[in-house]
């Protein structure tokens, strides 16, 4: 992409998100969401192909429907109550419509079909933005809403964890797997959002750090499928150790960072006397753990099939990870010792 155009896109994405998360008025929040939607379109379509054009049009239509629902519901609420403030949205129907529209924008199950297609059809940078940054503004709005439909919220959260796990089981493309991983992690955030919003936000930050590390390593090694992961030891030997650990962290295994948000959320659900939902969430997360383990196994313990006489390219130019990847990888693996301080901060 042209550097000048890329600069404009990044500035627009940042501006749109900042407008949304700092506004207390629904019109300004809606404006920020629209800026975000239009800013990402050039990144999705910059390499012209019929598939990219089709997915970009689908993405635009889905986002337009969601923002129309938000605008319709906020006008309905303002018509009855005279309030445009986000935290003053108290009517049942507008609250439900806005919540569903925001979930559609984020790609939560069962409204997730467009999201996996969009990530798979995009490059790694665009897929990372769709999985993390584009969800920041809608999630912030959702955390500000005091919904009266906690049962619906919990159901959608559990469904997202389940579908995120089931959908990734039979995938071979790394971006498709990470898109289902994103749906499952969002399910955990939605599950706790009505009880401790700060804990949901902390989970999002930790997930973003881990996801950034994973997408960045896949981008550097150009590993678009699981099959290519078997050759990663030749191109980037350091990834042979780091990538499986980050995959296990995404799966939520102790003593890695990814265990912390799941531990906090399950503990809080038990405190709220929601033991059945906590049990279902923990069991459903095992499905996601399976495909993380499969990717880790392919990376660290498998070599691609070769003929006996094949010469291994030992002298291929190795890629050296940049400093930002070293920082994000460290945060993805070693935050768990800080868990007492993080739990105290999120539960205040």
From TrEMBL:
<comment type="function">
    <text>Core subunit of the mitochondrial membrane respiratory chain NADH dehydrogenase (Complex I) which catalyzes electron transfer from NADH through the respiratory chain, using ubiquinone as an electron acceptor. Essential for the catalytic activity and assembly of complex I.</text>
</comment>
<feature type="transmembrane region" description="Helical">
    <location>
        <begin position="323"/>
        <end position="345"/>
    </location>
</feature>
<feature type="transmembrane region" description="Helical">
    <location>
        <begin position="57"/>
        <end position="79"/>
    </location>
</feature>
<keyword id="KW-0830">Ubiquinone</keyword>
<feature type="transmembrane region" description="Helical">
    <location>
        <begin position="232"/>
        <end position="253"/>
    </location>
</feature>
<dbReference type="Pfam" id="PF00361">
    <property type="entry name" value="Proton_antipo_M"/>
</dbReference>
<feature type="domain" description="NADH dehydrogenase subunit 2 C-terminal">
    <location>
        <begin position="289"/>
        <end position="343"/>
    </location>
</feature>
<dbReference type="GO" id="GO:0006120">
    <property type="term" value="P:mitochondrial electron transport, NADH to ubiquinone"/>
</dbReference>
<keyword id="KW-0679">Respiratory chain</keyword>
<comment type="similarity">
    <text>Belongs to the complex I subunit 2 family.</text>
</comment>
<dbReference type="Pfam" id="PF06444">
    <property type="entry name" value="NADH_dehy_S2_C"/>
</dbReference>
<protein>
    <recommendedName>
        <fullName>NADH-ubiquinone oxidoreductase chain 2</fullName>
        <ecNumber>7.1.1.2</ecNumber>
    </recommendedName>
</protein>
<feature type="transmembrane region" description="Helical">
    <location>
        <begin position="151"/>
        <end position="170"/>
    </location>
</feature>
<keyword id="KW-0249">Electron transport</keyword>
<dbReference type="GO" id="GO:0005743">
    <property type="term" value="C:mitochondrial inner membrane"/>
</dbReference>
<keyword id="KW-1278">Translocase</keyword>
<keyword id="KW-0813">Transport</keyword>
<dbReference type="GO" id="GO:0008137">
    <property type="term" value="F:NADH dehydrogenase (ubiquinone) activity"/>
</dbReference>
<dbReference type="InterPro" id="IPR001750">
    <property type="entry name" value="ND/Mrp_TM"/>
</dbReference>
<feature type="domain" description="NADH:quinone oxidoreductase/Mrp antiporter transmembrane">
    <location>
        <begin position="23"/>
        <end position="287"/>
    </location>
</feature>
<feature type="transmembrane region" description="Helical">
    <location>
        <begin position="26"/>
        <end position="45"/>
    </location>
</feature>
<dbReference type="InterPro" id="IPR010933">
    <property type="entry name" value="NADH_DH_su2_C"/>
</dbReference>
<keyword id="KW-0812">Transmembrane</keyword>
<feature type="transmembrane region" description="Helical">
    <location>
        <begin position="91"/>
        <end position="112"/>
    </location>
</feature>
<keyword id="KW-0520">NAD</keyword>
<feature type="transmembrane region" description="Helical">
    <location>
        <begin position="202"/>
        <end position="220"/>
    </location>
</feature>
<feature type="transmembrane region" description="Helical">
    <location>
        <begin position="273"/>
        <end position="293"/>
    </location>
</feature>
<keyword id="KW-0999">Mitochondrion inner membrane</keyword>
<keyword id="KW-1133">Transmembrane helix</keyword>
<dbReference type="InterPro" id="IPR003917">
    <property type="entry name" value="NADH_UbQ_OxRdtase_chain2"/>
</dbReference>
<keyword id="KW-0496">Mitochondrion</keyword>
<feature type="transmembrane region" description="Helical">
    <location>
        <begin position="177"/>
        <end position="196"/>
    </location>
</feature>
<keyword id="KW-0472">Membrane</keyword>
<dbReference type="InterPro" id="IPR050175">
    <property type="entry name" value="Complex_I_Subunit_2"/>
</dbReference>
